[in-house]
Amino acid sequence: MTEDHATYSKDFPEGYGDFKLIASDGVIFCFPKAFLSWMSPVFADMLSVGGDTSDAGDIQKQVSVTEDSTTLDLLLRFFDPKKKVRPLEEQTLPALLEAARKYQVPEVMDWWEEQVKLEKQGPSNEVTTVIKYPMLSLALAVRHGLDNTARLALRELIKAPSSEIQTKLHFDSTLLTHLIQLRQERYKILSSKMLDYYMSRDRCVDCIWHYAELSHHMARLIAALADEPSLRICQTAVSWPVSPCRWVHWASSQEMLEKWWISEITTLEDELPSLPAKPCEHYLQICFRL
Question: Domain total for the chain?
Fold first, then answer.
């Protein structure tokens, strides 16, 4: 690419710094060498041995990188105090984290861990990435060794609709098996609670209608919980009937849910699940049992 036809980054234009980074799609980023060396030991080593020159008379150093211009723009914003970090996006996050790992920039990982906290952010109540993209967050967290973030993602996936865990992302089979087991355990807890309540109801001649109606609703609820084992389903999957019984004063099932179960299930859903044991840990556990 000749200098006359070079494409420069809009936010890191020609003259912005004394070093040129050429993205894989040909876009040139100008950036101060001092910042590159300060923020990344990989760039520091790279610059210490020098770079190529576009021609013999050009003293401006440059190097080509494998990242595209979108990823390089996102990464350099963490190097430059004048630039604002861009919001998280599902499409660009994997490449950004991979670049941060490659160039040893822990600030990116620290930033992402802050972003995935489950608290609501700002007056707009925007949810965090781990809630928007739990499977992606889980995959990236495990890939980059961020255990706390992985546990946050697992917490969301346990109570998510089954469609949320359908993904083309590469996952270790142990991790997927662990997630499925956690969802099955949650389903058993919630469905058992509902069935115990249903089976323990008093019966009388006047309540045959209510008992049959409740049976229908319970069947629908149990089926819904199999797809999404969550408090949300317990509250919204069915319209709970109220008993017409004149003698046995049943509270409505919805009232009982609100009085006794919401607090218990909410506490359950707030707990951080464990990660699957690593191979070495699992092996040691087996050995100790022998």
Answer: 2
